[in-house]
Amino acid sequence: MANVAKKVSWSGRDPRDDEDERAGETTPLLNGTGPGSAGGARQFTPSSFLRPGQLSNVDLNEDIRELETELPRPYPNEIPHNEKLLSLKYESLDYDNSENQLFLEEERRINHAAFRTVEIKRWVICAMIGILTGLVACFIDIVVENLAGLKYRVVKDSILACSRPPARQEPLDLCPLLLVATRRMLGERAASSWPWCTDIDKFTEKGGLSFSLLLWATLNASVVMVGSVIVAFIEPVAAGSGIPQIKCYLNGVKIPHVVRLKTLVIKVCGVILSVVGGLAVGKEGPMIHSGAVIAAGISQGRSTSLKRDFKIFEYFRRDTEKRDFVSAGAAAGVSAAFGAPVGGVLFSLEEGASFWNQFLTWRIFFASMISTFTLNSVLSVYHGNAWDLSSPGLINFGRFDSEKMGYTIQEIPIFIFMGVVGGILGALFNALNYWLTMFRIRYIHRPCLQVIEAMLVAAVTAAVGFVMIYCSRDCQPIQGSSVAYPLQLFCADGEYNSMATAFFNTPEKSVVNLFHDPPGSYNPMTLGMFTLMYFFLACWTYGLTVSAGVFIPSLLIGAAWGRLFGISLSYLSKGSIWADPGKYALMGAAAQLGGIVRMTLSLTVIMMEATGNVTYGFPIMLVLMTAKIVGDYFVEGLYDMHIQLQSVPFLHWEAPVTSHSLTAREVMSTPVTCLRRIERVGTVVDILSDTSSNHNGFPVVESNPNTTQVAGLRGLILRSQLIVLLKHKVFVERANLNLVQRRLKLKDFRDAYPRFPPIQSIHVSQDERECMIDLSEFMNPSPYTVPQEASLPRVFKLFRALGLRHLVVVNNHNEVVGMVTRKDLARYRLGKEGLEELSLAQT
């Protein structure tokens, strides 16, 4: 059997981490291939039927015991990871409604007026999603702005040296710290009477800047440490931007804790601390995850984390409705981040939602519009311009003058070339991050190590920035500049260091400066060094155990090399007016971001809305398409790559193109655990309690209790439904089958959603085990089925288009012969050598 061990994942820390890690490479695979199988291909054997109620999974205990006796179990420093694995720990969401008798009776009772009320509630929820997402974005922006300004002032004060000559010789190494302390305690006037170094050069020669570097690195590392600790030890799923997790959720994969209130709190606090800590990150990406969590919470009308039920929106307590609102929340997050309502809708369509309809489009657009309006209004009041709605998003790229910055036909090949460069650099970024993530999975798998790595990256980022500022002599006049944090350093009076500005500014402001600063504002050497250093810092940073996004770092890298490209063109064309550096900074930013995340349509609209100019719509689209085509030739996009690294059973839009030779008989799981329409309670409890199977859907059949012959399919019932039935004791004694069992309503199932109690928490006495339970009223009598001769692409299309969790495979007599689940389909993919099958691993 193939070997695999537990690896770091989105689902958080498992209390059995130590046990799993000590197991090393002894964790067995389910449906895995043996070492003797050729080419890793699975050997298919004819299925054999089990009697109803019989447990279906292969017993692996014997294999486990053999492995334990053969292999030592030392505590490994390395966790092996195989990318050709599919994890069995991820469950699917129930996007298909179970149309049992309870559901149909409720739907028949609802009249036209009630349906109108439900539709109005949907619009109200979307409005609330937009408002709260906008307010969260405001909170993040205001806190980041104030904390970043405070950090800038502290570090700046430690670097400044007074111009007064010293009255006596003092140890100059203490100059910056004494200056800060004296100004804080005694005020500026008292501080001016203290002896300070005569000038910055003498101050540097005596080693004063070493304390400033230490102060900057310590501040950054301390802030990032707090942000990493709360993520690593409280809610690991809050790490990163959250976009891959939301993509998986909308695809139908249940990622544990991904839309919980605790995740939102850690996400917001974590992204604030990451940005303030000076990491090469942005706060825009996590807004998408934050909006999705807000949507999931509001739409349910309660908080399971706070154990508060507001008794509202109970109709929407199912996965189908929740998915649509999460799509709206993700779009509202994009809208709040970039001030792009249409871009938010298209992002949710292109990157997130797997299922779409016209009514959903309007509601999502409404949520996005409300989100950007809320953010705009609050920030306008905060900045003292209550009636000036000039802050539509967390980042505003500013207005480009279309009259001065148009483009001509001869620039089209230049834009295509920039797209090629963006695709190559994006592929390089993704490839480096891939190997870095593999290293983290193998070696940096403990929370304490993850925190140490985050602190190391923060300190190195500060040190690299400090050294580059120290080495730079790129001085620009302050007059007429819009720089928020000018730092003079080695420059003359009235000038500031542009390299220091690039590192001290928040990444969003640096992007805007690169777009709009006049020609001559940056030295080409400054841009080249900044691009090189920031590229590797951003690549190292993405994947840390901190809440952070990759949108703004990508835009900043692209804007830097794009402006450098524009300066080169201007030099070659001897200052022609069409070679404006700001225009090429915009194209470079689009090319770099498109080369990393591989978005086209939504990113085009986002860039157009954020710049307020449709003139560059065609060039941006051209650049993005080129970058995607070139990048896809080498490696896949960053989000898809991280989904694959976490072994998530993600279903793409289509089945592999070479999979027509496979049929449902070859891909289905078999044999299947079936239940009779009237089943013994003890049998149900035993099936649900068996940890080796852990099935979530059970076909219901009619059969003769005295034979093992399986009869025709009658329906499908879920584990969650059976648990609710057992919890409410919905069964009768065997001798009284004619009695009417306790009546349940759909409200009983909705109240238990989404955290259904485990079977171990439900007590069933020995007498109750002999009772009988009638599943007719609660099972779905019309589950989707396919014949065993159906091709894999046909099964795939039906499964994905309808958002199914279980697809029953039947023979010509309507007898159950197998079950197709998400993992059965996701394990087939198109590799470099054709169609390949992934192994299913209990990781």
From TrEMBL:
Region (Disordered): 1-44
Bilayer disposition of the protein: Multi-pass membrane protein
Subcellular locations according to the entry: Membrane
Pfam families (UniProt xref): CBS, Voltage_CLC
Any one Gene Ontology BP term: transepithelial chloride transport
Residue intervals passing through the bilayer: 123-144, 213-234, 264-281, 325-347, 359-382, 412-432, 452-471, 525-544, 550-572, 584-608, 614-635
Keyword set, alphabetical order: CBS domain, Chloride, Ion transport, Membrane, Repeat, Transmembrane, Transmembrane helix, Transport
Molecular function GO terms recorded: chloride channel activity; chloride:proton antiporter activity
Signal peptide: none
Domain CBS: residue ranges: 779-837
Listed InterPro entries: CBS_dom, CBS_dom_sf, CIC-7, Cl-channel/antiporter, Cl-channel_core, ClC
Source species, domain of life: Eukaryota
Chief place of localization: membrane
Cellular-component GO terms for this entry: chloride channel complex; lysosomal membrane
UniProt-listed PANTHER family: CHLORIDE CHANNEL PROTEIN CLC FAMILY MEMBER, H(+)_CL(-) EXCHANGE TRANSPORTER 7
Annotated family: Belongs to the chloride channel (TC 2.A.49) family.
Protein name (database record): Chloride channel protein
Lineage, highest ranks first: Eukaryota, Metazoa, Chordata, Craniata, Vertebrata
Gene assigned in the entry: CLCN7
